[in-house]
Write a structure and sequence with these properties.
Helix content: under 10%
Largest sheet: 7 strands, mixed
Number of helices: 0
Order of helices and strands: EEEEEEEEEEE
Number of strands: 11
Distance between the termini: 38 Å
Shape: globular
């Protein structure tokens, strides 16, 4: 049972990236899935969360509202985080989470 986060990389300010959280051993549609991030020297913080496929709206932390979009493709057992208008302060390792299960993290670096 694992979550695999991918899609990170180096991008310039204003650029975009799409992170993916692929699951094996669990069915993501049964879980609310969260994205968290941890910047160097800082604590891990929530970024976004998508509920189970029940029509409830997703959650976005204030710093990413209007720039990030979370979505899920239950057929692919994958959750995505589309990140637009990236800023240097978005630089962090991004993790996906399902209850107590964490992915390994993917590094996003935004250059100024």
């Amino acid at each position: 049972v694992q979550l695999q986060a991918s899609g990170g990389g180096l991008v310039q300010t204003g650029g975009s990236l799409r992170l993916s959280c692929a699951a094996s051993g669990i069915t993501l549609e049964n879980y609310a899935i969260g994205w968290f991030r941890q910047a160097p020297g800082k604590e891990r913080e929530p970024v976004s969360c998508i509920p189970r496929s029940d029509g409830s709206p997703p959650y976005y932390a204030d710093p990413v509202k209007g720039r990030f979009t979370i979505s899920r493709d239950d057929a692919k057992n994958t959750v995505y985080l589309q990140m637009n208008s990236l800023k240097p302060e978005d630089t962090a390792v991004y993790y996906c989470n399902a209850r107590t299960l964490w992915g390994q993290g993917t590094l996003v670096t935004v250059s100024s």
